[in-house]
User: Fold these one by one.
Assistant:
Number 1:
Amino acid sequence: MTTVGFIGLGAMGAPMAWNLDDAGFDLVVYNRTTDREQPFAEAGVSVADSPKHLTKRADVVCCIVSDGDAVAELLERDLGVLEGVDQDTTVVQMSTIGYAETMAAADLVTEAGGRFVDAPVSGTVGPAEDGTLVGLAGGETEVVEDVRPILDAMCEPVVHCGEVGQGTNMKLFVNLLLGDAMAAFAEALVFGRASGLDVETMRTVVSNGALDCPLFDSKGGTIADGDFAPRFPVDYQFKDLSLALDRAGEVGAPLSQTAAARESFSAARARGHGGEDMAAVIQPMEETAGVEAREE
Amino acid sequence: MTTVGFIGLGAMGAPMAWNLDDAGFDLVVYNRTTDREQPFAEAGVSVADSPKHLTKRADVVCCIVSDGDAVAELLERDLGVLEGVDQDTTVVQMSTIGYAETMAAADLVTEAGGRFVDAPVSGTVGPAEDGTLVGLAGGETEVVEDVRPILDAMCEPVVHCGEVGQGTNMKLFVNLLLGDAMAAFAEALVFGRASGLDVETMRTVVSNGALDCPLFDSKGGTIADGDFAPRFPVDYQFKDLSLALDRAGEVGAPLSQTAAARESFSAARARGHGGEDMAAVIQPMEETAGVEAREE
Amino acid sequence: MTTVGFIGLGAMGAPMAWNLDDAGFDLVVYNRTTDREQPFAEAGVSVADSPKHLTKRADVVCCIVSDGDAVAELLERDLGVLEGVDQDTTVVQMSTIGYAETMAAADLVTEAGGRFVDAPVSGTVGPAEDGTLVGLAGGETEVVEDVRPILDAMCEPVVHCGEVGQGTNMKLFVNLLLGDAMAAFAEALVFGRASGLDVETMRTVVSNGALDCPLFDSKGGTIADGDFAPRFPVDYQFKDLSLALDRAGEVGAPLSQTAAARESFSAARARGHGGEDMAAVIQPMEETAGVEAREE
Amino acid sequence: MTTVGFIGLGAMGAPMAWNLDDAGFDLVVYNRTTDREQPFAEAGVSVADSPKHLTKRADVVCCIVSDGDAVAELLERDLGVLEGVDQDTTVVQMSTIGYAETMAAADLVTEAGGRFVDAPVSGTVGPAEDGTLVGLAGGETEVVEDVRPILDAMCEPVVHCGEVGQGTNMKLFVNLLLGDAMAAFAEALVFGRASGLDVETMRTVVSNGALDCPLFDSKGGTIADGDFAPRFPVDYQFKDLSLALDRAGEVGAPLSQTAAARESFSAARARGHGGEDMAAVIQPMEETAGVEAREE
């Protein structure tokens, strides 16, 4: 049976790991802070002392951590995933990081003799729990097929996006579109409110048109409720738009609207909403326009 | 029985007028050029010599023409709708025009003794034919209720957005969001293509995510096919974003992302794509980035 | 001797008219409100009852009023400049208005038998008093040369920019650049302050570099002093950027950065700074970033 | 006598090093490729085998290289500046790199026992030859004063901008403003050309107004001549705007206009103008608008 190592038991990682456990994989987990490992230990899941030990034991090592620095640290320095890698190891990098960071990680793993797939996921905590994240896999077809049963335990669908790095590019594509759409929706709502329209009526109209989609439905609702509890926080959306713009600069795709969206999220961070849900991008816009989209 | 006058038998207006005819209203039509009136005459529908005569005959006068100047011309000058207005006339202005233009038209009609509803519609030719346009009505509740059976013949749903002018504001809200979303989708696709992603795979991912919506589904398809036959042309989207930004300036809602989107549509016009579908906003972006989203 | 009519005795117009008087022209003035005419009457300058009477008396009619609507009202309706125009009249339109508005005014004057020059001026109250405004003249060479002595009394230099309309386009060009530069300077200062730099040191560096110019020198000083008394108010700069973007849309010049600048001025208006100096564009940026560029 | 080490003999570095030599300092130089060292060797200047050896010999080590990676490589890895650093060494980092990169370099030097000043310079090759670069120094007052004679040999003025890192922030401030102003000037010229104005006339008007400055004077001239030989290339300006936006994101200063400017430079890169002068930012704008600012 395949032994799967899972590093990073955060809000996303924990339910993903549970899904691997439920699917019957021989699971070994690791988290930087031990409190997040506790429930797994209590349920009889193996807990590794270090990423290096985890890697030595596992056939496939999945990791989902906060950013590119955290991935680099996992692989190199004290954390030593690389020291544990051998020719039977496949590393599945699931964090949302930059393209250059992905390729650097892939090179390190490959040089250490292992195989590499980048497979960031699209979706929030709900889909993570339900196993319905969209898995965005980049890697050689054979390698992606080998790890597909593992990805299938966490994701539905799993989309093979191309060679190594293309999973990451697809994730940047998705979150670029998500960020642009969220900030555009916020601008539209503020325009409407400043013009005297009612949020509920605007929502009705959107839901009857060509832009009827889960994002506008859910964010319209939480904005109307004044509920900015984080599903996907402003800080993360800002990070992802920054990564996408970095990459766009490298590949020669000027993105003026995306650049404007990034600055809108930057404003939300500057006004103290970085930890709130991405829908909080509307808040500085409301302040400036002197309106509120919150329902009475 | 209510006599309905209908002015403007263009791509949208003609099917809307047919729906009024099908619904059994006593219909009288007018178009600036007679060729568009011909099929109605042949089907036994009354054709008026002038907007003034049409207005004299009708209880309710609907008009859907190209822009605010055309509406002003209809009401004043030679075309003389106003001369035909009396206390039993209700004018239903369905063209997409600016807020100030709407209010000016409303004032003229009201001063002439008539009643006024602004009821622009959201949707393209297909929904116009099917009677499933989204009707966005602004006016006093009593007046909107009086004309609702007429709107119902052309629209489903009919949304009462508020007092006079709010139908127009809602239309600007909808098309602002539409334009922003279209241009953002174009940026995302160009980013993806420049990064090595395949359009079909990007479409699959979008259709599995929080932005799954008719717009991205249909425009993704036509872009992949290189089909820019106009459903809603770049020129109209540019006009509507310009109107929205004018209005936003008046009500104090700064819209940096919408402003960027307008310039993207301006680029498409400058490159000769003004008469093509709004999805052609992608074409100058592709030229600059040196990529194509068209499927092989 | 040439009789010069001057309409519009505002902050700019009054000193311009005094300069005409000082230059020895036979002057007749008009202002919508009589209080602004009083000092001229007291100094023995003729005051006309109406624009129509002024035009009948004058060989050359200069006007500088608030916007395109005010110009249209002067020419048509009750104010009747056009009724006073004959084949010996030259109208010199000096207000900053849109290109389409300029051409419409030119057409009206020409149809009434008169000659037309558009000659908006660049500069603020100081240069208006000193007669050192930059005069931006559009019209046939012969006509511009005929009125040049009059312009020379108010301006130095007078630049002939091309045929009718090009004075207006040049004014839009100048104020587009001015607005963009002002908002960019504000962004740079806020960036610097947020990064821990001192305004006075930033000013020293700018004054030693390739961007050493009167605008940054003076606005840097007033910003450091927290002095936002209007030389050229935010509202006017916003209007001029809006006119430039309208015109840019017509001629097919997409201007993404100018579009962003317009929204920055829109934010300043929305936050109540519309009547303050254009440098107040920095204030919403400071609020968002939580910094102040004001010196202690 | 102070021994000065100078690393990086590129287009900027070489004349700066000659100025140190002319000022009578005991100079030792190093360049990654030996051809750039040759003229110095021929003139009797010491040439070091490696950055490490240079650092061992020198009291003050100046470096000006291409980017943050090059600086990191100089300090660490094979190049070994750090190995040569002792308590008598002061490193003066003059390259334009990011704030985080500067602070990382400062930490490394300080940990190795040395002292650190960041002193990027503003100006192009001409001022580098004339010794009139604007030196932007960040560091403790005592350390900056100690190296001021060295900076004075290359710069006039030398501006002490604050503690370590503030020289870098000031450089980002300057180049942010420069990039914004350049792209805004390009937009204005394209607007004017598309509106029928003549470049030479626009230049005359700018030179008579509040934005009369060396940048617009020189770039207006080279654009009119179609001369895009690089003084400061598009690629560098793009890099510096990217660094400034990164930093702005960290300190919470949303910069929508600067973000738009970055995308304009990105477009110039995408169209193959990355190695040309920053004024080439106008070229994709001209292509889109279908105009040319080049004089006949």
Number 2:
Amino acid sequence: MTLAIDPAAHLARLHQTTPLIHNITNLVAMNSMANVLLAIGASPAMVHAREEAAEFAALADALSVNIGTLSPHWVDAMVDAAGAARAAGKPWVLDPVAVGATRYRRESAARLLALSPDAIRGNASEIIALAEQQAGGRGVDSTATAESALGAAIALARHIGGTVAVTGEVDLVTDGRRVARIHGGHFLMPRVTTLGCALSGVVAAFLAGGDDRFEATVAALACYAVAGELAGENAGGPGSFMPAFLDALHALEAGTLTARLRLEVSDAP
Amino acid sequence: MTLAIDPAAHLARLHQTTPLIHNITNLVAMNSMANVLLAIGASPAMVHAREEAAEFAALADALSVNIGTLSPHWVDAMVDAAGAARAAGKPWVLDPVAVGATRYRRESAARLLALSPDAIRGNASEIIALAEQQAGGRGVDSTATAESALGAAIALARHIGGTVAVTGEVDLVTDGRRVARIHGGHFLMPRVTTLGCALSGVVAAFLAGGDDRFEATVAALACYAVAGELAGENAGGPGSFMPAFLDALHALEAGTLTARLRLEVSDAP
Amino acid sequence: MTLAIDPAAHLARLHQTTPLIHNITNLVAMNSMANVLLAIGASPAMVHAREEAAEFAALADALSVNIGTLSPHWVDAMVDAAGAARAAGKPWVLDPVAVGATRYRRESAARLLALSPDAIRGNASEIIALAEQQAGGRGVDSTATAESALGAAIALARHIGGTVAVTGEVDLVTDGRRVARIHGGHFLMPRVTTLGCALSGVVAAFLAGGDDRFEATVAALACYAVAGELAGENAGGPGSFMPAFLDALHALEAGTLTARLRLEVSDAP
């Protein structure tokens, strides 16, 4: 079965609306996430103090929360902000970086998961660990394929009533009912830090104002996959990949996106 | 009326003295601000703990403070450092990022404003919000022209007895008595995160040892405008702009600066 | 006297093992350190909360600690993590950024030094200040040659029973018994922020699983020197240097490393 999904229409809406995206992300990802969001046409803001996080979340068009570098004040602010986003009807995205690595990560992720994110984005190890709420994976990098996390992703999507994206050589997106597989990207992408983290912000940008969270999440990953493929053609290694990727995201047009995209959609098993 | 301002002389002094610039800036800007300051010939240091911020501010040649990502300990350290800089006779610069967005930002900015910065650098929304001490603007990006903030900038400059720089397509600098308009830069600059934040550090670097704060601030913005214009000629998008901009700042010479600069100076209305 | 050191063998082992490197580093260096570690073939993770730092240090293959941007919670977590690394038999590296600049830095460094790092990496000013435990140097940049810190480095290496690396135009490594001098690199490297900080992470990556800490430290600096030299051939300034450097680190092979390396090893005086 193939459902009609038009990522280019979602990209066009993002370009027209320039959504304000509130990010509480890790200290490694801050700069690249801001640049990725600017390149694709959103307006990023990083606001993490408990004194203002909830106020700002209600003001922004969407929120992304990433547990990559935690500390108690930040976790409290993440919980405040996610609660405020929900109360204001704004979508929010959870990125469970290395959730299986320590007890503190599992507990922090559980607090956030209880606030029903509209979308979750992680690698296979993270999605499996989050679904099982048990230890697994050591660091932030995953060697498992996204496909190996399909069952976990579907279960998690049904649990939150939202979408789950698993990134890898082939990316998966599911809302528990449908499954999309997105081909593309480039082998250098896992060698560039925080590209995955920044993608979670991009998912938030596409969710802002989107009616269909599954389609919006697929559109975000589609743009990343095509821009990554294009950047790979101009990169001599992981260092030159990042500038090329930002240039490609910035230049990405509906025609190129549609022509390049390799997307399959099916019913969830 | 045109006053004689020679930005190239200020750049030459910076190159000769390699001023040590103490920055308490936001978490997104840290890396790019350090690279911008190194590229132009200053020596950057980021020191934010209350246990050492005042001691370091007295040691450095100038201080820049940016409220982009706040938390209580940081705000206290900013206040300590600004007070220490003043006590030691060192200039300091305030960058009021997104000051209109939340109550916490307005209150933090008010505490800092009371310590009379030698210069303030922001976009039009921020300068207007700071001058009016009231809510305005949502995020960190501004759509207003710098010119729309002229009245606010002049009022603010007179209030602090220092200079105010408003960046936009055409930049403004005023000390409440004179107004400089600086043309140049590139349309990609607002699509690269923290270029504005880093400029506030550059203003601090030019204020270090400068006799005339208005001229020093104009010189800082002049270098940015010309380097931005040069970088734009070699950039294929916002990703390749940043390396090109750092290369251009590093290579910037008196002759190029003077030949390229488009600067108008007039009396304040 | 020339001892047989084969950095290429150390690089090959790193490529085969992809060690997980736990870094508690400064806020400026986070992103570039992660990219440098990914480029050379390690798996970086930044974990600084006291709630998880010790647990993670025991899990990782090596730890690097950098005092560039301090605050009390972070210093406590650094001490916890270094203690846990020692208890688990994992090597750890100390980077004493600007240790001479403030009392807080000297005290924090003293707490860490008491936990016997396996290696220390700094510039000449930092190594001298750490060895003398007294004030010296203002900022993070050093104008002294590495050679001027030879005596301090040897004393410090004997004190910790580990290796000390002093970076400069010519780099020094000593374990108190032997001294290696490594030529190479590029004059632009001090104009790119946090390249030195990232090198301390690379030293940790080479120490992971290495039997001989002196050889492993030399191997880390050898890769940096050769990659820096190669990057310099393709860089138009400090902005384009960083992407070129990451590309060069990623592409670095045994043959190139061995052919390009200029290394002298002698007995310590």
Number 3:
Amino acid sequence: MIIVMKYGASEAQIQSVVNKIHQSGLKEHLSRGAELTIIGVIGDEEHLEPSRFAILPGVERVNRVAKQYKIVSRSTHPSGTIIKVRGVEIGGPQIQVIAGSYAAESAQQMDLTADAVAAASCRLMRSGSFGAHPAAQHREALGLLRNAAARHQLPIVAELPDVRMLDTFMEFDVEIIQIGERNMQNMDLLREVGRINKPIILKRGVSATIVEWLMAAESIAAGGNHNIIFCEHGIRTFETAYRNVLDVSAIAVLKQETHLPVVVDPSDAGGKSWMVPALAQAAIAAGADGVLLDVHPNPSEARYAADQALSPQALLDMLAALKPLAVALGRSL
Amino acid sequence: MIIVMKYGASEAQIQSVVNKIHQSGLKEHLSRGAELTIIGVIGDEEHLEPSRFAILPGVERVNRVAKQYKIVSRSTHPSGTIIKVRGVEIGGPQIQVIAGSYAAESAQQMDLTADAVAAASCRLMRSGSFGAHPAAQHREALGLLRNAAARHQLPIVAELPDVRMLDTFMEFDVEIIQIGERNMQNMDLLREVGRINKPIILKRGVSATIVEWLMAAESIAAGGNHNIIFCEHGIRTFETAYRNVLDVSAIAVLKQETHLPVVVDPSDAGGKSWMVPALAQAAIAAGADGVLLDVHPNPSEARYAADQALSPQALLDMLAALKPLAVALGRSL
Amino acid sequence: MIIVMKYGASEAQIQSVVNKIHQSGLKEHLSRGAELTIIGVIGDEEHLEPSRFAILPGVERVNRVAKQYKIVSRSTHPSGTIIKVRGVEIGGPQIQVIAGSYAAESAQQMDLTADAVAAASCRLMRSGSFGAHPAAQHREALGLLRNAAARHQLPIVAELPDVRMLDTFMEFDVEIIQIGERNMQNMDLLREVGRINKPIILKRGVSATIVEWLMAAESIAAGGNHNIIFCEHGIRTFETAYRNVLDVSAIAVLKQETHLPVVVDPSDAGGKSWMVPALAQAAIAAGADGVLLDVHPNPSEARYAADQALSPQALLDMLAALKPLAVALGRSL
Amino acid sequence: MIIVMKYGASEAQIQSVVNKIHQSGLKEHLSRGAELTIIGVIGDEEHLEPSRFAILPGVERVNRVAKQYKIVSRSTHPSGTIIKVRGVEIGGPQIQVIAGSYAAESAQQMDLTADAVAAASCRLMRSGSFGAHPAAQHREALGLLRNAAARHQLPIVAELPDVRMLDTFMEFDVEIIQIGERNMQNMDLLREVGRINKPIILKRGVSATIVEWLMAAESIAAGGNHNIIFCEHGIRTFETAYRNVLDVSAIAVLKQETHLPVVVDPSDAGGKSWMVPALAQAAIAAGADGVLLDVHPNPSEARYAADQALSPQALLDMLAALKPLAVALGRSL
């Protein structure tokens, strides 16, 4: 931790900061410049609360130096992690396309969706969001997803809306549990999924910084579950021509900062089906390990988010274009 | 709902939109301009999903016209609503200062905080966030808050972290239940607090638009609980000189759009105790009905968010300055 | 233009809006719903100022319907435009890499840069920004760029810092004139470059919406110069892990909204040389027609923006990876 | 400057950073923690370019410690600066209201505006923006402003659109020169107004950080002109209910960081006349030294920005409400 003193801070103020460092059982390292005094804190700064120093008289600002995420950091784990789900690898050379409908509307709609997903050779099926269903119907929606996917032996990805549903998810043996963007910093939920043995897709909050996202992953990992997949699905800005801006720069940053896989949800990001192919291509080209896609057997009749769903044919066309791109990048689809 | 067709949209495309309107049991209203055709949808558009029209060929865009919030809207309820809590009025001429510590650290710290709150003549005591406590400790924290407040007959405001805690909150008879910013769009939680008979403080998500916020309030109100207080506590932008920008413009918009009271949390917004007086003054001058403040008996020893807590003396000083301001605005403190 | 009246607007208020429409020589189209009245304005709405209606009593809001950009719109010009510069095509199947140093430091540095640009088979040479030079030195910097590029017969791209420099740019016969992000809405400058016969690269302001950007291009085009190339180079958000977020979604939107070419500046966007290859790949995969790159013969000695410059070797490596990607997308490099 | 090395950086990498510091004629200060090595640079770091260190192998990041603004900083000039314009003080106890029309439409409109400004006891007259006029008409607009203001002996504030207009501004003896938000980082313009002896109102760019804004002011001050007034007029965010969010938190930050006066433009910020009184009150309560207001003799006929202009009566009403507020804050109006 580095404490920058104000221009003209008094000797007593400096001493008071140093005393507080000593009280914490740590040691200081003083640099007195012509204009500024800087105090470095040496030792285990992890448990130091910077705000308790920031408030002291004469302190200009306090910066942490050490990163607060360790388990998920590439510094301590240089090679990339591959997460395996019933034989499907995420984070390896093969790019994964995880497709499915935003909402479970009926058995027939889910079956047709599963048919489309399998026909496009996708290896995982998702449902977009259980936010679309009242709590009472989550269980039913999960059943529809499981049944539809089972017809094609597809492992499933489903969003855990609430910690109370975790038992149900375990009972249905959901292969990958998704944490939605609004739960990205729900500490109780992160703690609970950190104790189980299932891969987690952690969606980024629409206004979460990359560091906050890495720290959310660290909170899961701290419980023992290191099978975490980051999912970028757009951040909120001033632009209104699409829902959120797909942050491809974050993919590049994550690939450097963490050893864990990164996937992207271009359907949610742009909120328009016609944008999905371009965004998916950009994501893969930037280094993403997979994409999550909204597919609906008949988009113009979808109950929710109709304008972001791909039709089965659009899915096929899009994957046909994605395949040579993956190969050009030294990967496969 | 207004559907704007693309430049050059064909007659068949227009007809197909009209047919879909008829299928929904509604009627259209066609305006053919020299360049553009616009289709208005007449009737109860509330249950129309715009995205199902946006996806049709030839459609440029679809805009809702009617607002999606009604119960909370000032259009249908022109006079302002006053919410009463054990004789304390929120939304009336008297401005309310709701003060307390961010975290419940110990009985002694909470008692000293309550003493400071009462000494400053505040009429309500809060705890900042139960996010600071693991779930297991919420109950204990609530007990500390209740006991400390009881010594001065202060009603309490506490944040409901999770729907599972609602029974505990009812048991402790928490006078005002706060919904934190990360739960602003947690539909299960909104539904549950919509069924009870307690005032709700609804914090704005750090990247939520005012319309999303009004719709979240509408979701509570739809359950029957109309005792909702909006709490602005800063939105996230590119600026890093403070935590979030306090959106005073939102206060002006809310005062026009809704009949419900609006309070502001300047401690959370700026994240720096030295900013709190200026921000609180700005909020009141912009029309806010109250402020939520972080106070700690000894800020430099606070376990969390030390740099945003006011000392008891700073609270007194600040309220002394706020009082004439309130009077100049035709209100009282 | 569509005027939405407030809930409960009086008949007199409606009539007063209609009167004002008539005064403008246009006709109205009234839709009276159960709750809301909507007034469409028919005819040439281009010269109507919406704010003059928005201020009338009883008006809720006013929305333009027609787009304000026409010449640059794909609606009226469905096929893509290819811009030719001394035999080099921008907007065609071939992707263009426009490379050069951010600042002109010396003849030797510029010559080495030109050598690197030519060695990598780039067909155009740029200088990053004349913002790095005081006005008095712009002429000198331009001379260094022209001389260095001439040794390899490379056409040049240079940023016009100020309308007063336009004569100098014409004198040096700069092949492509770049408008920097801070001048994107400098109407005098746009008007002047609209009168000349040179391709213009129009950089997006870091907080400009896509519509504002299209309208800036329309302002150039209105003067007769339709040779406009959009350059996306990142928008400002709350994220601080990189300079600006590269908005690949904007590429998809532009490709639909305008017939003009789109290029991307990944060096400026991310502000880190190690990010450039990933961002350039993402941009091309999203549909961009080219990239602008910062190259320096010796980045760690660059006078400005050292951390975003590629070394000559890094440029070669990056283009080697970009080539198969272009081919996979049905293009060439 | 502080250089944080990567986790696991080699001794050779550390040495290479140290060598580069020595080459710059400065000295280093090494702190080797258990996990991280931090290198402080001691001496005059002003001329060090951090990016040249950031690019070195093994470097995690580089942070400046010293602020880059000095002349405008309150550190070196603790008491507030009062700027005097023909007897009117800006930055003192008296709050200044600077009012006028956005555009100069005609002599009559400007005369009526000046009458309204004088009738409301404002001491300075402005024109909102010369962006509303083509360059050729700036001179004429300035003449209309000067003539209208002269009838009431009001000093004038006008926006300098372009460095070429500076001579005209000097000729018309414009008392306060405004730099518009798009020119906030126009270095040529800042340099030129730094050489003259007129107060400058420096508007903040809609996406400029406070530090960038302070550095722009420093660029003016470096030329010798220290008569600078900051003008906050809203920053761009995701919210669309108003034009830009008025950043009252920035007022609090500026009051701490700089000794120079701060004014606010609530008309431009919100873009709606009905918001202006609430925003102006918030600004004054947060510590602003004045407000800039749009006034038009007949807003619904204004050629531009009709919905943000106050009528003469609305101006009177608003100032009547502002007066007791100023007094409550220990100031006058």
